[in-house]
Design goal:
It is built from ten helices and 15 strands. By secondary structure, it is of the alpha/beta class. α1 packs across α6, α3 runs parallel beside α4 and α7 runs parallel beside α9.
């Protein structure tokens, strides 16, 4: 099998490793020679290019699967909309008719619910945030491109909750260890997915004979923000956290919903290795090189 990853970062490299182990040929688009060297060392064939530059995508190979998992680089000149929407359009123009499966990574930020409601794939995606609106626009691009029966590929959109894992989403550890109040309330709901479970979901989608248009990718149990940080504090030997509910916290906006993963488990058949934060966060902390180096 030939696999192409557009956005081969924290998540994409874990997917690539699984495909490489299965004997697949894996290609990845990259903007830098440094990243290209790292990809080669991992057995991945780098292809120079930038999603915002349509002409640079002409060398992308025909393949069985495209994973579109582009993240936003704040140091780049392009805006988030230019990367997520215009860049995706460029990739679809080049690859939609030249692959058998197109997997697009989206986000649960598409949901605007704020009162602790349960949401799933049938819930209204009506985000009031700019980031959520951009994700909704990107999803619509994928749906529109694959609405024609003439298109060869089969597409799916994966709405991922917050990805965490080794050296990722272990934020505010220094604040916890220094007993600093955490900005924002402790009673908002968090929805998370371990990076290894997200990677396995993508591999499953690539092999599945039949896919739904959308899957919500989250673990089995949403967790209150206070519970998350109390567990993290325990795992890193920090004092129990305190919270400043009056402070504005970027990470506490838009979190008060609960994501249901029933379609992921029952229709797609994904068995989560880390079904809750108790098992997943323990693994993430123990496997984090940054923490081990302290």
């Amino acid at each position: 099998m030939r696999r192409l990853i557009v956005g081969c970062g924290y998540l994409g490299r874990r997917v690539a490793a699984r495909w490489r182990t299965a004997g697949d040929d894996v290609f990845a688009l990259t903007r830098s020679e440094q990243n290209a060297a790292e990809l080669r060392a991992l057995g991945i064939s780098p292809i120079p290019g930038d999603v915002t530059d349509a002409a640079s995508l002409q060398s992308l190979p025909e393949c069985d699967t495209v994973l579109h998992a582009v993240g936003f680089d704040r140091s780049a000149a392009a805006s988030k909309r230019e990367v997520y929407v215009d860049g995706l359009s460029n990739v679809l123009n080049q690859m939609a008719a030249r692959c058998d499966r197109f997997i697009h990574i989206s986000s649960t930020s598409v949901y605007g619910q704020q009162d602790g409601e349960w949401v799933d794939e049938e819930s209204a995606a009506e985000s009031a945030t700019e980031s959520g609106e951009i994700c909704i626009a990107a999803e619509q691009l994928v749906r529109d491109r694959y609405s024609s029966a003439a298109v060869k590929g089969q597409e799916t959109v994966l709405r991922l909750s917050g990805i965490y894992g080794p050296d990722r989403l272990l934020s505010r550890i220094d604040a916890l260890k220094n007993a600093q109040p955490l900005p924002g309330p402790e009673d908002g709901w968090l929805n998370l997915i371990h990076v290894d479970d997200a990677a396995e979901t993508i591999v499953t989608c690539a092999e599945s004979k039949s896919l739904a248009a959308v899957y919500l990718v989250s673990d089995d149990r949403p967790i209150l923000r206070g519970e998350y940080y109390r567990l993290l504090a325990k795992l890193v030997n920090a004092p129990q956290p305190t919270f400043d509910s009056d402070a504005v916290a970027r990470h506490s906006r838009g979190i008060n919903k609960r994501c249901r993963n029933r379609r992921l488990r029952e229709q797609l058949g994904v068995a989560l290795r880390f079904p809750d934060i108790e098992t997943g966060l323990t693994h993430a902390v123990n496997a984090s090189e940054i923490l081990q180096a302290e």
